[in-house]
Amino acid sequence: MDLNVQAYNNNQLPTDSAICDLLANIIDAELxxxxxxIWHAHPVWFLDGNPxxxxxxxxxxxxxxxxxxxxxxxxxxxVKGVKFKDASIFYxxxxxxxxxxxxxxxEKSKTIQWDYKNIVxxxxxxxxxA
Length: 130
Description:
It contains three helices and six strands, in the order ααββββββα. With 130 residues, the chain is of the alpha+beta class. The chain has a six-stranded antiparallel beta sheet, covered by helices on one side. The longest helix has 17 residues, at 14-30.
């Protein structure tokens, strides 16, 4: 795990830190060919420079977000973005995390992608890349 990501996780309250550690370990195991760093103040994983998954502490809990998740057609990714193609789920305890479900979403994140990397160059217009 990236040292900055570990520091982010360690800065959370104990329950949230455990959730973050579990999510990071699942993501790292499934997306071992990706770049991982703190981006916009929270952990994000990138595939060829394109953000695909990340998590952050919010009022409702730890939010696991997939940048292109709205197209995954997954019932539990039910917090949809308004302007973009993201979808999320919130966790408040590690017992809520379904590892197999997250692994399935991570597999989809490799093949279903919108090009966020070039969104500024395209003046806010998203294009499907995978």
